[in-house]
């Protein structure tokens, strides 16, 4: 049963992650000013693969435990928000809205991690790298927004980026 649950959670992770293939960064993102500490492009698919495996393992460890309803509801919320950020930021080119989404995602991941810790210490630990990564993503989104005021102005005016 654990392998079936892991596979289901992993499928949910990769479904959310598939938005990265549907809404690629493209020329718009490449032209934006970014901070010096922006991870190289190669880091993203590697990091997300590892994170998705950890997230799926955490979900599978907790899913069948008594009293895991809140942890599973939060797990579902964070994966939905995870899948939402890419279309908002790269698809719609809405950096401010992306920052709002990733900020809410950060809160959801932190709450999920805490709820997982209450159920299973290892499951909670498996979410720590994810929270670190979402922290970096939030800071990166904020820095890109701050460093590209012209793009932010287009967004505020409602014009396409």
Determine the mean pLDDT: 93
Which word captures the global form? elongated
CATH superfamily: TspO/MBR protein
Helix content: over 70%
SSE order: HHHHHHHH
CATH architecture: Up-down Bundle
Q: Would you give the CATH topology?
A: Ferritin
User: Which consecutive residue ranges, at least 5 long each, have pLDDT under 50?
Assistant: none
Q: Look at the structure and give the CATH class.
A: Mainly Alpha
Describe the structure.
- The protein has about 160 residues and is mainly alpha-helical.
- The chain has a single domain, classed as Up-down Bundle (Ferritin).
- The chain is built from eight helices and no strands.
- The longest helix has 27 residues.
- The model has no long low-confidence stretch (mean pLDDT about 95).
Compact description:
The protein has 8 helices and no strands. With 161 residues, the protein is an all-alpha fold.
Give the arrangement of secondary structure elements:
Layout: H1 2-17, H2 19-22, H3 26-31, H4 43-62, H5 69-91, H6 95-119, H7 121-147, H8 149-157
Helix pairs in contact: 1-4, 1-5, 4-7, 5-6, 6-7
Task: Provide key terms for this protein.
161 residues, mainly alpha, Ferritin, 8 helices, 81% helix, 0% strand
